[in-house]
Amino acid sequence: MRVLLLFVTIASFGGAFAQSTTLFEDLPALIVSNDTLELTVMVDGGALANLILRDDPAKLSPLWNPAKIARDAGKPANFGNSRGHFVCVDGFGSASKEEQVAGLTDHGEAHSLPWVTRTHMKSGGMSILSQSVRLPIVEEILTRTIRVVDSENVIYVHSELENLMGFDRPINWAEHATIGSPFLEAGVTVVDISAGPSKTRKYEGTGGGLPHRLVSFEDFTWPMAPSIDGRKIDLRAPPIPPNSGDHTTTALDPSRKLVFVTALHPGKRLLLGYVFKREQFPWLQTWEYYPATNQLARGLEFGTQPFDLPRREVISTGSMFGVPTYRWLPAKLKIETDFLIFYTHTPPGFSKVDDVTLERGELRVEDRTARKNITLKVSLPL
């Protein structure tokens, strides 16, 4: 990881303070931070690229950094703006031949364009970063505001997608949150989800890449997925030894208003989590990239669709498990999304997440087997 601090402005204006600008992997980035954590956000593409706890001596980020992984392996990094947690809108999956001719790339336009910084300041006890990007091919504007309150382990993310066209349209939107090595460790780092029904991805007719462990396009109950050798595989942790690549989807628990996905490294006692509204993002995809080199990556991709597929295929599917596979964006109007990111230390013996709840200004994370809880202050509404 290459992070170079360029400047921190301390001059005040109207009670607000400008925030720091940096380089991350030799590219311009912005810092949003408090006394507890620090988040690095890319200028081009808006990716949330690096997240650390200030009191962590190792300054370990759970987020996927393909540039560092490639550098450590002596290889060039060819991932463009795809790193950490990036946004896929409007579009999540391959562009059709016709869309490619029109200039549309995979995973939508937002992650591949320069973003405009609208606000980057600290006011009182809150750090704020607001960015926007116009998507010229689909004629939409994405605006994202990130807030961090002093002394909290929580990041608040609010987004708006505006339709510049005069007709209603189905859209595809995913938050491509991705964890990576060394935080993601084979046999150690576990993922937990507020899960409903799940399904493996269809892969017949596709070649290349890492070997599959899982049966193609079959229903299962998270986390025990059907393997090609007839066993059930627990998907919570990467296998030992790693040498596979698979993809699954989960329709998040329909009984909940707020749903979650977490990634826990029990040895390092670090926990990353996302909490979001199921009505906005009813699907959670887990993309697994587990090469034998142990340079692992795993997507925790919450969005409007079950798999990252071409637009026509997603819209034509309509629904899976009775859950819609797209969202409507009304003519000349905006839709919104909100989610929380939390990153915190865990108590000794904390080994899994059974539930995450948000009530009365507190985020409560439970490991019922160990009879241990984590309580985090949450001062802003979700």
How is this structure best described in words?
- This protein is mainly beta and 382 residues long.
- It is built from three helices and 31 strands.
- The protein has a single domain, classed as Beta-galactosidase, Chain A, domain 5, CATH 2.70.98.
- 5% of the residues lie in helices and 48% in strands.
- The strands form seven sheets. It has a ten-stranded antiparallel beta sheet with strand order 2-3-9-10-11-12-28-22-21-15, with no helix packed on it.
- A hairpin with a 2-residue loop joins strand 29 (355-359) and strand 30.
- Mean pLDDT is 93; it is low at 3-15.
Quick rundown:
The chain is built from three helices and 31 strands. It is mainly beta and 382 residues long. It has a single domain, classed as Beta-galactosidase, Chain A, domain 5.
List the helices and strands and how they pair.
Elements: E1 3-7, E2 12-13, E3 16-18, E4 21-24, E5 27-33, E6 37-42, E7 48-53, H1 66-72, E8 85-89, H2 97-101, E9 116-123, E10 126-135, E11 140-149, E12 154-163, E13 169-171, E14 173-180, E15 190-193, E16 195-200, E17 219-221, E18 224-226, E19 232-234, E20 244-252, E21 258-265, E22 270-277, E23 283-290, E24 297-303, H3 311-317, E25 319-320, E26 323-324, E27 327-329, E28 334-345, E29 355-359, E30 362-367, E31 372-377
Antiparallel strand pairs: 1-4, 2-3, 3-9, 4-5, 5-6, 6-7, 8-14, 9-10, 10-11, 11-12, 12-28, 13-27, 14-24, 15-21, 16-17, 16-20, 18-19, 20-23, 21-22, 22-28, 23-24, 25-26, 29-30, 30-31
**How many distinct beta strands?**
31
How many structural domains are formed by the residues? 1
For the record, what CATH class applies?
Answer: Mainly Beta
Which percent range fits the helix content?
under 10%
Number of helices: 3
The biggest sheet amounts to: 10 strands, antiparallel
What's the rounded overall pLDDT mean? 93
CATH architecture title: Distorted Sandwich
CATH topology: Beta-galactosidase, Chain A, domain 5
Task: Give the structural class.
Answer: mainly beta
Low-confidence spans: 3-15
Form type: globular
Biggest sheet: strand arrangement: 2-3-9-10-11-12-28-22-21-15
Strand fraction equals over 45%
Rg computed from alpha carbons, rounded to a whole number of angstroms: 20 Å
- Give the terminus-to-terminus CA distance: 32 Å
